Amino acid sequence: MSEPVADDVVISIRDLHKSFGSNEVLRGIDLDVVRGEVVCIIGPSGSGKSTLLRCVNLLEVPSGGTVTVDGTEITDPDCEIDDARRTMGMVFQQFNLFTNLDVLGNLTIAPRRVLRRNRAHAEEIARANLARVGLSEKESSFPGQLSGGQQQRVAIARALTMEPTVMLFDEPTSALDPELVGDVLDVMRSLAEEGMTMLVVTHEIQFAREVADRVLFIDGGVIVEQGRPEAVITDPQQERTRNFLARVLHPGQKTA
Amino acid sequence: MALTRRQRTRLGRGAQYAIAVAVALLLALTADWPTIARAFFDVGVAASLFPDVILIALRNTLLFTALGFVVALALGLVLALMRLSSVRVYRLAAGAYIEFFRGLPALLVFIAIGFGVPLAFGTILDRLVSITLALGIVGSAYIAETIRAGIQSVPRGQVEAARSLGMSPTRTMIFIVIPQAFRIVLPPLTNELILLTKDSSLAFLLGTTLEQQELAQFGRAALNQARSLTPILVVGLCYLIITIPLSYLARRLERKYGSAGMPKGAEV
């Protein structure tokens, strides 16, 4: 694999800090994600991994440091954040489908109101993305009529209709019943295979091992360890990483 | 001989019914029925009220209420958004307005608009404009708080999802938050409409000619002429014709959308 050239870097994070009151959640994160890379972020709850992801599209405003996405420094106060966010698709733990709109409405509202696509064009793209997540027949359902797994796949399709250069996933399977997790992971896997740049906060270690180009272990607001998944997951170098993986991979067993 | 739980319940219920029947009987036996019938159920007087009670009085009540409600809704929405604004001055101004007009009797607001505005600005407002304005102001203070609560009950994730798609705060408010908030506040808004229907009776403060009369004023005028209480009955029924369907509607909406503002059958 050749060394990435500078303009291949899609997300560039420098010395990122975030505090909630006196609680410092992120304590200096540096991270570069190159085009087409799939980075999975793992770590114990409260480690700051979701906050890190939410800082990337400024749903949380960092207390310090810079975030640059696709050449735009979004932490610049003069940055047109709404424009910058269009290049990033976000998928939430709780799906957050718009409950006042049906599935097609969820997929067309932003393209129509933000990108000014006309209705027919927006619906054409929406239907193509619904087919991509395997839910073409659900276009006139309301979110409440879908299972959690279906809702999350619609949420992924919704993010894709904006044709983002990066997809951010915030624990996309954590709110799902176990038997519904697979469908969502399948959609994410095929996205990764198509070459989408992805930043994924997840507890699915197996998924990270299979799909990620790089795994980041975060604890206490810093990146403790990172590298190829087989290295970080199979042969962790840090004590904290080993403990975490032991707890996640073998729940119920005593750890050293 | 101890009574079982079921027997005790039955005995208690029986006692309650007995008391209710006794009170009803007492009222029925002591009331002067022939006088009541003459006063309230004078068919001739009732007939003489038609068609004006419908064509003028009911029509005016509906007109005043509808116009007042539209103004109240628009003003209430603006006030609610100001209350939730990140701009402190807007929050304070809206808060002061709401506390002020919610604390005053509607009667005072009508007098202030009807007599205060001409004094202060040297212009006499059209009567319909004055009534619409007064009802709008009275209603808006309550409606603002209702809408604010509705907007705040829309889950944060909905806003985050919209913003993450690149929608501006304004677009998010218009296309996502307000539509959901309105589903949540439809039942309480219907109740505000009922209250406003009754408040429209205060229009009597701002004009007296026949064509201007709404239900309550029409009833009082007829009362003086007919020397019978029948107009009260007729006019009262007219109010109920408006308000009972509205409360039925409010209950229907409440059942349909539930407290979470979601269509029935929705799961979270």
UniProtKB/TrEMBL annotation, chain B:
<dbReference type="InterPro" id="IPR000515">
    <property type="entry name" value="MetI-like"/>
</dbReference>
<keyword id="KW-1003">Cell membrane</keyword>
<feature type="transmembrane region" description="Helical">
    <location>
        <begin position="61"/>
        <end position="82"/>
    </location>
</feature>
<keyword id="KW-1133">Transmembrane helix</keyword>
<comment type="similarity">
    <text>Belongs to the binding-protein-dependent transport system permease family.</text>
</comment>
<feature type="transmembrane region" description="Helical">
    <location>
        <begin position="172"/>
        <end position="190"/>
    </location>
</feature>
<keyword id="KW-0029">Amino-acid transport</keyword>
<dbReference type="InterPro" id="IPR043429">
    <property type="entry name" value="ArtM/GltK/GlnP/TcyL/YhdX-like"/>
</dbReference>
<feature type="transmembrane region" description="Helical">
    <location>
        <begin position="103"/>
        <end position="125"/>
    </location>
</feature>
<dbReference type="InterPro" id="IPR010065">
    <property type="entry name" value="AA_ABC_transptr_permease_3TM"/>
</dbReference>
<protein>
    <submittedName>
        <fullName>Amino acid ABC transporter permease</fullName>
    </submittedName>
</protein>
<keyword id="KW-0812">Transmembrane</keyword>
<keyword id="KW-0472">Membrane</keyword>
<dbReference type="Pfam" id="PF00528">
    <property type="entry name" value="BPD_transp_1"/>
</dbReference>
<keyword id="KW-0813">Transport</keyword>
<feature type="transmembrane region" description="Helical">
    <location>
        <begin position="131"/>
        <end position="151"/>
    </location>
</feature>
<feature type="transmembrane region" description="Helical">
    <location>
        <begin position="229"/>
        <end position="250"/>
    </location>
</feature>
<feature type="domain" description="ABC transmembrane type-1">
    <location>
        <begin position="58"/>
        <end position="250"/>
    </location>
</feature>
<dbReference type="InterPro" id="IPR035906">
    <property type="entry name" value="MetI-like_sf"/>
</dbReference>
